[in-house]
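Agenda item 2: flavin mononucleotide complex prediction
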Amino acid sequence: MGREEKIFDSFDAYRISQSKLPKLIFDFIEGATGREIAAKENINSFDKIKLLPRALIDVSERSLSTSFLGENFCYPFGIAPMGMCNLAYPNADLLMAKIAKERNLPHCIATATSTNLEEVYSAGEDKSWFQLYVLNGPERWLELAKIAKSIGYKTLILTVDVPQAARRLRELRNGFNVPFKIGMSQFIDFAIHPVWSIRTLSAGIPKPVLFQNEDNKFERTANRMGANWDFLNQLRSIWDGKIIVKGILSTEDAKKLKSVGIDGIWVSNHGGRQLDGAPSPIDILPLIRNALGKDFPIAFDSGLRDASDIVKALASGADFTFLGRPILHSLAAAGKSGLEKILSIFKEELYIIMAQIGVKEINEIDNSVLAGSQE
Ligand SMILES: Cc1cc2nc3c(=O)[nH]c(=O)nc-3n(C[C@H](O)[C@H](O)[C@H](O)COP(=O)(O)O)c2cc1C
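Presented output:
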């Protein structure tokens, strides 16, 4: 029995991932900032929202396809940008890009990737979107955006919720550094996970290929304060594709972004990895939708663990959603088959839930599917 056959939901993937990965790597993926309250609340907040079952509606024909930013996709979910994915499983970036193309869903490649942008684009083609971090000094990062554009990327995600890298206690306690600094405890951690260690060593230890400072050194905790309104203007002038700004929780910021000609915003608290006191994005989403009006494109992530969460996000104002940790845990648990399995599970669950709530199309999902909307 393949490992993927033991995955029936994202929590199964989480458990198998935990058993297969060195603690150092598992904690890098699963960890969050501070006391990890925001990360836990992201999930609890979804659990407090209830969907409303509906009766006697003909739901024999349903479609999961939807459009976002003018493109059609097979499902209302894609893969969020995540740095250093190849630590979860060798060639994870390429596997995600390839599967995204096969399944017609967007896959975001992060600035902190360890795979070069050309390879990712040739695997994912127009399903590959590029996520940009901006360290100090705009020129270098505008240059990187121009390189991405010349490769073919058409959608750019500017992440703005990391002005300064957060303190993530699991990483500090485990001595997680990139490149690895291998002391006794890391050595033991790798030694007791030989399958991961041999596989990762033989594929080549992942290294960031783009995310370097002026001295061409990788600094994981470097400030990313270069992302400001001036930078955004400059980016807009050189990027004629779509720009989405990721990491928005303030209605003021959202309104200003809309007014400066951005194509969409991405409501997120970075999976609780940046500000432990941040609210759950799902609680803020209806306010942002209300502030921006019904047509402005809104993407969403943080805390999506099953398809009912996706429906709740769509019902609360999102047009499209992105999966984070469940993707990496599924890759860590069972490689390519794990990734395919989790995407199929989300798809199957979504299809079933649509029948229960009486909707045939994704764009029929609105606030009325929430139990709380009843008079
Ligand atoms: C291991 C890991 C690395 C991440 N790296 C990035 C990154 O490089 N750029 C970015 O915009 N977001 C990054 N994120 C945040 C995700 O894009 C997304 O916002 C978050 O995972 C959503 O929360 P969830 O995983 O709990 O659903 C990362 C998340 C994880 C788990």
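Discussion summary: Residues 3-373 form a domain with the TIM Barrel fold (CATH 3.20.20.70).
Owner for follow-up: CH.
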